[in-house]
Design brief:
Elements (H helix, E strand, L loop, with lengths): L4 H7 L6 H7 L11 H22 L5 H11 L2 H10 L10 H5 L6 H18 L2 H11 L1 H5 L9 H11 L6 E8 L6 E8 L4 E7 L2 H24 L1
Antiparallel strand pairs: 1-2, 2-3
Helix pairs in contact: 2-7, 3-4, 3-7, 3-8, 4-10, 5-7, 7-8, 10-11
Length: 229
């Protein structure tokens, strides 16, 4: 079995069962026994731990800001940055086709593998230990999380959907009203895969689409909450 000493040092966790670690690193192109189910667990644990950390670290942030920051922290972009920091690509178990097509650097594969690693720690020991690993990996991001509030809602929504492997949101101008010097724009934001459609208004198309994206993020939060019941 491959030597995973360096990877475990960077994770801050030593596995009791290296077979679990190996499974977390196994892409579906390599074996029918792969990390896809572990991604599901890791994604849920990551959301919870990041939310709890943000709640305790930033007591002055509103619910909307906390949701916005969390979406940015668990986005594919952040997961890929973390994957690259720990050199995760070199440990991946890939099929020959995926190997030849650059799978070791593919963002979706790297991001999914980070989630699978989190699940692997939980399965090998406990949720508490998985939380410690997350806090270590995300420490720098958590410390500077408030800077993410300035990021626009459309970008946050796009990253949120990409992390879920869903298509981009659709923005449609619903209509306008009011006099020319004080016109109000009504914008729809549609996410077909989640059957979400929200409408917002603003003084121009840009403002209306930003508010619509913010409302769509809130609807996704509700969708997740209902799915967990």
């Amino acid at each position: 079995m491959r030597d995973y000493i360096k990877l475990q040092e960077l994770l801050g966790y030593t596995f009791n069962d290296l077979a679990i670690l190996r499974l977390a690193l196994t892409h579906r192109s390599y074996s029918r026994q792969n990390n896809e189910r572990m991604e599901f667990i890791g994604d849920s644990i990551l959301d919870y731990v990041i939310a709890m950390n943000l709640y305790s670290r930033y007591p002055k942030c509103s619910e909307g800001d906390l949701s916005k920051i969390r979406a940015a922290l668990v986005s594919q972009d952040t997961l890929v940055e973390i994957a690259n920091k720990i050199g995760l690509g070199e440990y991946l178990l890939l099929g020959s086709g995926e190997e030849k097509s650059g799978g070791r650097k593919r963002p979706s594969i790297l991001g999914d593998c980070v989630e699978a690693l989190i699940a692997a720690v939980a399965l090998d020991s406990s949720d508490i230990m998985a939380a410690k690993v997350i806090e270590q990996l995300f420490d720098e991001y958590l410390d500077n999380a408030e800077q993410l509030i300035s990021k626009d809602f459309k970008s946050i929504l796009q990253e949120c959907l990409q992390s879920r492997k869903l298509g981009l949101p659709i923005y449609q101008l619903h209509g306008t009203d009011g006099p020319d010097h004080c016109m109000v724009f009504h914008m729809d934001c549609i996410i077909p895969a989640l059957k979400i459609k929200v409408t917002a208004q603003g003084r121009n198309k840009k403002e209306a689409s930003q508010v619509a994206a913010q409302r769509a993020l809130a609807e996704i939060e509700l969708f997740d909450a209902h799915s967990e019941i």
